[in-house]
Design a protein that fits this description.
heterodimer; A: alpha/beta; 6-stranded mixed sheet; 18 helices; globular; B: alpha+beta; 3 helices; 23% helix; binds iron/sulfur cluster; metal-binding (chain A); Hyd_form_HypD (chain A); HypD_1 (chain A); HypD_2_sf (chain A)
Chain lengths: 386, 124
């Protein structure tokens, strides 16, 4: 259990909470879209500090978690090729494909490199003209503009040995899909702040009006979440359903025009499969025709991929807010960060990981002594060599 | 990866025809592309995601966020060694024979990777 004293400004947190408690008269279910917000909520016990009537449902906003198994398997296959340097963000190293992950590919001799920025991958391509350099381009609207700029640069500078394995996803179609699901209980959304830093809020008013749900643009610090919940609850109690920006310090209504222009140039909207959920129409980006030469799927004909999703994993339901992670049978038993069945257990923004890290003892799901992962500083000989 | 971190612009230059800056994130410095915030100036703060400045931020909010991230070990998660972190998550030893273990005892003297840190709670 967490305490309000742990908040950066406990007095302000208390005021926000008091206001929420005073406003609520009926039960409401809000979905926080962003996985970073989920971690803040669970880490600080915000769900436990809120009135019982306010339920927070975790949304699909973790790009690492929703990258389809097939794309992970393609990445693993490309990364295993001797002529390839495969570059990725660190979050993808442990995401399970069919039977293995990028970490394993590297220990088997694959040249997998972790970069901080996609531009680092481009530099590696410039430095290694004799080899193919592939960057794993995943992420929501926050990550897509950097990747778009990198491809644009590759074209401009004429770097022929660089390509992007693209699996970008877009938030508004996911909100639409969630609202259309017959089992949907969501009555209001906390929209992902940094996605809106890029995109602005122009996609939301229509969604809010059509589905009659308040959409509150929210940051991911503890006080941001409380403020987002406060504004959403206030709207719900008054029967309103508008778009409200509670993260104005980082979100301009028009977003970032330069980034939007680059997105439009480099990518085009396409249907995308979300891991565990299935295909959502118009929910992703692929490289536009002008940049097709830089598409890794095009360049490496990756065929014969046989994906195998573990039958026990219910991350699709977790990602749609239909199931809380600890309600999954495998949680903490068959599935731990050390041997994850789904990406939601390893990603630093995954809901299953959040529950495992901060709640598993409290939930009594897991006998601590047996399943606590080896601490980083544990003696190396204690674990078998991979 | 989804985390965007506020940072302060230290200096601005140009590389391959692109406006670039050195940005300080509470002690860690990185090269950052300014093409999406072309009028950002030295001394200003911005939200930076995977090496790109995406939106201006006022100094006070930036400092507060950085302080909070440092407390929560999130800067370590963002800028620390990802292979170490991945090994820690999986409970694996350092498996890369061609590479020396960058730090055989990463727990000593600095914060452990953020994913491993909360697991302390689970131990007696
Ligand atoms: S606990 Fe593991 S198996 Fe269950 S839904 Fe989460 S990732 Fe899948």
């Amino acid at each position: 259990m967490k305490y309000i004293e742990e908040f950066q400004d406990p007095a302000l947190a208390r005021r926000l909470l008091d206001d929420i408690h005073a406003t609520v008269t009926r039960p409401w279910a809000l979905m926080e879209v962003c996985g970073g917000q989920t971690h803040t909520i669970i880490r600080h016990g915000i769900d436990q500090l809120l009135p019982e009537q306010v339920e927070l449902i975790h949304g699909p906003g973790c790009p690492v978690c929703v990258t389809p198994l097939e794309v992970i398997d393609k990445a693993l296959e490309i990364a295993s090729r001797p002529d390839v340097i495969f570059c990725s963000f660190g979050d993808m190293l442990r995401v399970p494909g069919t039977g293995r992950d990028l970490f394993q590919v590297r220990s088997e001799g694959g040249d997998v490199r972790v970069v901080y920025s996609p531009l680092d991958a481009l530099r590696i391509a410039q430095e290694n003209p004799g080899r193919q350099v592939v960057f794993f381009g995943i992420g929501f609207e926050t990550t897509a503009p950097p990747n778009a700029m990198t491809v644009h640069q590759a074209k401009k500078l004429g770097i022929p040995n660089f390509s992007l394995l693209v699996s970008h996803v877009r938030v508004p179609p996911a909100i639409e899909a969630i609202m259309q699901s017959p089992s949907c209980r969501v009555q209001g959304f906390l929209a992902a702040g940094h996605v809106c830093s890029v995109m602005g809020v122009r996609e939301y008013p229509e969604l809010a009006a059509r589905h009659r749900v308040p959409i509150v643009v929210t940051g991911f610090e503890p006080l941001d979440i409380l403020e987002g919940v406060r504004r959403a609850v206030r709207q719900l109690e008054r029967g309103e359903h508008t778009v409200d920006n509670a993260y104005a310090r980082a979100v301009r209504p028009e977003g970032n025009p330069a980034a939007l222009a680059m997105l439009e140039d480099v990518f085009e909207v396409t249907d995308r499969a979300w891991r565990g959920i299935g295909v959502i129409p118009d929910s992703g980006w692929r490289l536009s025709e002008r940049y097709r030469d830089f598409d890794a799927e095009h360049r490496f004909s990756v065929t014969g991929i046989n994906t195998r999703e573990p039958a026990e994993c219910r991350s699709g339901e977790v990602l749609q807010g239909l199931l809380k992670p600890h309600e999954c049978e495998a949680f903490g038993r068959l599935c731990t960060p050390r041997s994850p069945l789904g990406a939601t257990m390893v990603s630093s923004e995954g809901a299953c990981a959040a529950y495992y890290l901060y709640r598993r003892l409290e939930l009594g799901t897991v006998p601590a002594a047996k399943t606590a992962p080896t601490p980083v500083s544990a003696p190396l000989e204690a674990s078998p060599v991979v | 990866m989804c985390l965007a971190v506020p940072g302060r612009v230290l200096d601005i230059g140009e590389k391959d025809g692109t406006r670039m800056a050195t940005v300080d994130f509470g002690g860690v410095q990185k090269e950052v592309c300014l093409e999406y915030l072309p009028d950002l100036q030295v001394g200003e703060y911005a939200i930076v995601h995977v090496g790109f400045a995406l939106q201006r931020l006022d100094e006070e909010s930036a400092k507060q966020t950085l302080e909070l991230f440092a407390q929560l070990g999130m800067l370590q998660e963002e800028f620390g060694d990802p292979w170490e972190q991945a090994a820690a998550v999986g409970g694996d030893p350092w498996p890369f024979a061609d590479d020396p273990d960058p730090d055989p005892d990463p727990g000593a003297g600095r914060p452990a990777p953020a994913l491993a840190a909360p697991q302390e709670e689970g131990r007696p």
